[in-house]
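Q: Hi! First time asking for a complex rather than a single chain. Here are the components, and I think there are two in total. Is that enough to go on?
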Amino acid sequence: MADETERGLESSLRRKLLMGMAAIPAIALMPKFALGAGPATAEVNTTGLAVTDDEVTVGILHSITGTMAISETGSVQAEKLAIEQINAAGGVLGRKIKFIQEDGASDWPTFAEKAKKLLVNDKCASVMGCWTSASRKAVLPVFEQYNGMLYYPTFYEGLEQSKNVIYTGQEATQQIIAGLDWVNKEKSAKTFYLLGSDYIWPRTSNKIARKHIENHLEGGEVVGEEYFPLGHTQFNSVINKIKLKKPDVIYAIIVGGSNVAFYKQLKAAGIDMSKQTLLTISVTEDEIDGIGGDNIAGAYACMKYFQSLDNENNKEFVTEFKKMWGEKTVIGDVTQAAYLGPFLWKLAVEKAGSFDVDKVAAASPGIEFTKAPEGYVKIHENHHLWSKTRVGLAQADGQYKVVFETADLVEPDPFPEGYQ
Amino acid sequence: MILSRKELLGLTILATLILVILPLSLDIFRLNLVGKYLTYAFVALGLVLCWGYGGILSLGQGIFFGLGGYCMAMFLKLEASSVENTKIQSTPGIPDFMDWNQITALPWFWEPFRSLPLTLILVILVPVALAFILGFAMFTRRVGGTYFAIITQAVAAILTILIVGQQGYTGGINGITDLRTLLGWDIRTDNAKLILYFVNGLLLIGCLLLAFFVKHSKFGRILVAMRDKEDRVRFSGYNVSNFKIFVFCLAAAISGIGGAMFALQVGFMSPSFVGIVPSIEMVIYTAVGGRLSILGAVYGTLLVNWAKTSFSETFPELWLLGLGGLFIAVVLAFPNGLAGIYGSYIEPAIKRFLRKKSDLMPSGTLPQGSPAE
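A: Yes, that's all I need. Here is the structure of the assembled complex.
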């Protein structure tokens, strides 16, 4: 292994040297826009990023080992697919994207270490990465200090806005409010039982849900609210309480492996999802893969994207994704959001005419991406995306059937008034 | 004399490596990483004392590292949460995560962390206090061996759950992030990182000296005796539990210092350093270094962490296997860790070399071995 490492280092060094040597005559001899290449490197990169005349380096920073690997793998795959497609279409400002992948190892300090490496050592022009809020919170100071650009794909709790981050997932209100309104109208739901894993995202989301239920839904009432440690697998006592309270809706924000136990135990306790409405914002197609379609069929999920979405962009995306990663892969909400990252970055770079982070950040608001699998999206002033909210009904085959979508794009509001 | 000649030589080499060679040969990013690794070396050193010499295997040293780190992080967080910095919150002047959790006033146990001197005392005192309570409860009842290891592990798990569960007061699973200044001095600049690295290195060397002092004191001999034949020591009239409590507290204090330096250098603290997995990892550092070797603890920590970083940078998808392979290789081939490799291969070679020399120069003296361990 040591041999291989050495050879790897050596060859990358040699490549760098060769590239450097190639660049000298190239700069001297080539007219600015020769060979259909983009503008000169000195013009588009004034801050010393890893940009050469034909290549630009970006980072991919997700967990590919540890407990989060199962969730983050989809994001890595989507980002690689997007990069490949962008390269096939000619790259960004005439430069092919080269990526450096690092493993956050489901460990927040490791994320911070690797983020720093990608920015300081590798001078990545942007980084696609992170999944959990904890990992984002760990890397955020790094991105702000070294002025990097992060594309963060996960739906999350909001309460954050940074010049150095583009949030391609939904902040909490985008995911919660429309779903609650829908279930209130469609199922005449009044009473809600809120469940969640015990960390910031479920807690903040349930806080927003509670405020909305109590202040905006007629006769709305929260009859119970409970949290479980991450990885918890014993839900019998809470299921008994639910049976006793008979809420109109079980509102579940349970994450990761706990989902498997939760839905199996619900089913075993005889709760029939066709009679008992369950609305979740944490189970995507990826999670159903582990839970088993039979165990969750009949539940509703509120997301912005489902694999079954019926539009041209999405059909093409699903086909390409399966072609690259295999027929059996499923695509969840976050995977799609991760796919947007490289494209939104490319569009912002082209609008700015530069790879410089400050210019890209300034150019980002107003960027529109019409080829998004979820449909049309647009970057808001606050660096979040305008996107639609959709409700899907879980099917036994592990897919969702879309039963509702908002007519218009929902405005992102990371610091919602009246919900804090 | 605290050090034998051999130890003095070893310590000098290590000090040169930490304070001269590494700073000269690494850029600031890598050096900061080494600084981070060295904070774990404090814990490994504590383990050498209490496990290697005292025979007390604690699988919960992350607790003390974490407590030290949290104490430091709380001070830094309060400084970063000045009223100006937190104007947008509904209650300005408290840490941001408290505001997210609808807490409107600073909880009482955060108050002491407004003062730096008090914080520095608490960095050591809090871990020691917990170690004392644990040690007192266990050792006076003669709980030891595996049972003790399991209990420390349980405490580590409990503390993690407590921190994660009380997120309004502790920052939950995100930890305490975005630490900026120490008494107005920006700890995020390269210059500050360099200074902190040297402070950290000097503190570590101080702790190493302390460990050597303990090893050579009468107390150190009692520790070894206790490890090998506890009953005989007890029958000789020594109060075994007091010695055990003391060494356990000492290890906790050293770990706490490491934790505080970690928070300063890395800029945040999270419950992922408190739990079972990091605690066991820290035992691995000690085992790789050789659990009887005070200097080995530092080398073991550096080696494991360097391997972790470089494997994961080179093979992001396979690095865990590489690391696992390294552990298996060390345990199978060199049960006494790096110190064992040194003792059985390198040292004899050096001796042979020196002997040849001393044959030529009869007046030269042979290096003397340390007293038997």
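A: The domain at 45-170+317-386 of chain A is CATH 3.40.50.2300 (Rossmann fold). Let me know if you'd like any chain examined more closely.
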